[in-house]
């Protein structure tokens, strides 16, 4: 018997008010001393509003799982999933990659859905630590695997373009649940396959 797919949508209220966002962007730029009179800058507030609306709006998707008929019990790992999000403290982007893995239980997940889940939680103002944990917790809750591991490596423009201006620095966060947290060999295998020294 097949399990119906779960439709995953962003947990927000009504969609963005682009007209209000454009007016606010114009006010912000003007307050920062940037004249919008030139042909190049005249449309910038609208472009800003649409860009942030896109960054904060993930695509809905169907969480498709399948029975683990063969009893596969080894690690399933998707490496190098692109991550783009916006730091909630400065509204500046951070970009990098996520490595997401799990030890299957009774069901396995369509592989593309690992990338969709990363996108789902990244499309909002975020901190990397919370993003890492949200992905892992959600997979554990929805899939009920024997273990989950998530590692995110990202460069934050709030660190590289302003303040300390630590160009080239990256931040690594991880969340391990179940067997990947409790069993040293499983944990080491996960980190070795992600390329992270555990």
TrEMBL record:
Pathway: Cofactor biosynthesis; 7,8-dihydroneopterin triphosphate biosynthesis; 7,8-dihydroneopterin triphosphate from GTP: step 1/1. Gene3D superfamilies: 1.10.286.10, 3.30.1130.10. Belongs to the GTP cyclohydrolase I family. It comes from the Bacteria. Zn(2+) binds at residues 87, 90, 158. InterPro entries: GTP-CH-I_C/QueF (IPR043133), GTP-CH-I_N (IPR043134), GTP_CycHdrlase_I (IPR001474), GTP_CycHdrlase_I_CS (IPR018234), GTP_CycHdrlase_I_dom (IPR020602). Its EC number is 3.5.4.16. This is GTP cyclohydrolase 1. NCBIfam families: folE, PRK09347.1-2, PRK09347.1-3. It holds the Pfam family GTP_cyclohydroI. GO terms for molecular function: GTP binding; GTP cyclohydrolase I activity; zinc ion binding. One of its GO terms (biological process) is one-carbon metabolic process. PANTHER family: GTP CYCLOHYDROLASE 1 (PTHR11109:SF7), GTP CYCLOHYDROLASE I (PTHR11109). It catalyses: GTP + H2O = 7,8-dihydroneopterin 3'-triphosphate + formate + H(+). Residues 22-193 form the GTP cyclohydrolase I domain. Homopolymer. One of its GO terms (cellular component) is cytoplasm. It comes from Amycolatopsis decaplanina DSM 44594. Keywords: GTP-binding, Hydrolase, Metal-binding, Nucleotide-binding, One-carbon metabolism, Zinc.
